[in-house]
Amino acid sequence: MKSKIKLPSSWQTITENSDESCLDFSVNINPLGIPGTVKQQLSNPADITGVYPDPYCKYLSSCLAEKYNVNADTILCGNGADDLLYRLVFALKPKHAVIIEPTFEEYNRALELVGCEVQHYMTKAENNFILDEGILSVVQSDCDILFLCNPNNPTGQLVEPQLLKKNHKAVL
């Protein structure tokens, strides 16, 4: 007989218990499966094979620009969040960064590749991993980039809007 997994209350906001199993929302997998419309499109791959996708996503960018009434030049498409994250870090080549922990590990990996000095600001389990005002003293004028995952992955915690609006020499 399987025992039910008991999760800390802080994790209840990002997981669901269902028949002795947990759904992990920290990965990009749809727990409901592939949507029917996607299955239908994939059923005839002859229409999409043999053609390289547009590496600049011009058609997608133009469609998004039209839908959201913005200039297509302001839209950057990528092959997932990792791709865009690495592009950002390689373009900026920051020297000093702050990462709020625990969080998505790729921030640190990307920064290490450009030789960035990384300061980790740890949120505390006893505070339910909520970001507090201590972050304001960590973000100094020499901080080139701050990674603020909101909602946080893996905790699911949201940053309090009041904290984001704090008038301080540090800019979040």
Task: Explain how this protein is built.
The strands form two sheets. The protein has a three-stranded parallel β-sheet with strand order 4-3-5, covered by helices on one side. It starts with 16 loop residues before the first strand and ends in an 8-residue tail after the last helix. 10% of the residues are buried. The chain is globular. It has helices at residues 36-42, 58-68, 80-92, 106-113, 134-138, 161-164; strands spanning 17-18, 21-22, 96-101, 117-122, 145-147. α4 links the parallel β3 (96-101) and β4 (117-122). α3 runs parallel beside α4 (106-113). By secondary structure, it is of the alpha/beta class.
Class based on secondary structure composition and strand pairing: alpha/beta
Strand arrangement in the largest pleated sheet: 4-3-5
Radius of gyration: 20 Å
Q: Detail the poorly predicted runs.
A: 1-19
Number of helices: 6
Give the SSE string: EEHHHEHEHEH
Q: What is the strand content? A: 5-15%
Number of strand segments: 5
Shape: globular
Mean pLDDT over the residues: 81
Helix content: 25-40%
Largest sheet entry: 3 strands, parallel
By oligomeric state, this entry counts as single chain
Distance between the termini: 49 Å
